[in-house]
Amino acid sequence: MSALKRVQQWATFARIWHIYDATWQNPFDSAQLLKKYLMGLYKPIYHPMNDCGDHVILINSADIALPGNEWQKRVYFHHTGYPGGASWTLAWDLHTKDPTMIMRKAVYNGMDGNLQRRYTMQRLHIFPDANVPNELLGNVSNQIRQIRPVPKRLDHYSEEEVQTAPKVIDYPKDYVVR
């Protein structure tokens, strides 16, 4: 085998490092997107019994957005294995205890039916904020695009942008805000 073909084969089977920003993203939609990269579904060499997935660094998992009133309604089940060890935790409570757990559970459950999902999850590196060790950031070569755009917060607009924005209503001068 020539040196060029050998390098081409190494590049085909190499694990790529991706980074994904979970700010304002639905964890269940994000899980379906991340599953493709973790399992290697987008690669032409993919086979269900072939472990060709990539590494994914997920940042800002503390800023995820669940749809509707899922924070109050969604319940996560855990059992210790001992009698009476069953517990149900609401999503907001689980998120305050561990801001990475909802994303971890969403991605794990998104790979339903995959026999290798325990080993595949070892390539998912979740961080609650943007503080990622430099050893991991040095490996990143691709950024996964967010599913939905992140809106700009009101306090991030400059005073000039606020003044030039069209007004919806002009309040009367004697209007009192309570």
From TrEMBL:
<keyword id="KW-0689">Ribosomal protein</keyword>
<dbReference type="GO" id="GO:0006412">
    <property type="term" value="P:translation"/>
</dbReference>
<comment type="similarity">
    <text>Belongs to the universal ribosomal protein uL13 family.</text>
</comment>
<dbReference type="GO" id="GO:0003735">
    <property type="term" value="F:structural constituent of ribosome"/>
</dbReference>
<dbReference type="GO" id="GO:0005762">
    <property type="term" value="C:mitochondrial large ribosomal subunit"/>
</dbReference>
<dbReference type="GO" id="GO:0003729">
    <property type="term" value="F:mRNA binding"/>
</dbReference>
<dbReference type="InterPro" id="IPR005822">
    <property type="entry name" value="Ribosomal_uL13"/>
</dbReference>
<protein>
    <recommendedName>
        <fullName>39S ribosomal protein L13, mitochondrial</fullName>
    </recommendedName>
</protein>
<dbReference type="GO" id="GO:0017148">
    <property type="term" value="P:negative regulation of translation"/>
</dbReference>
<keyword id="KW-0687">Ribonucleoprotein</keyword>
<dbReference type="InterPro" id="IPR005823">
    <property type="entry name" value="Ribosomal_uL13_bac-type"/>
</dbReference>
<dbReference type="InterPro" id="IPR036899">
    <property type="entry name" value="Ribosomal_uL13_sf"/>
</dbReference>
<dbReference type="Pfam" id="PF00572">
    <property type="entry name" value="Ribosomal_L13"/>
</dbReference>
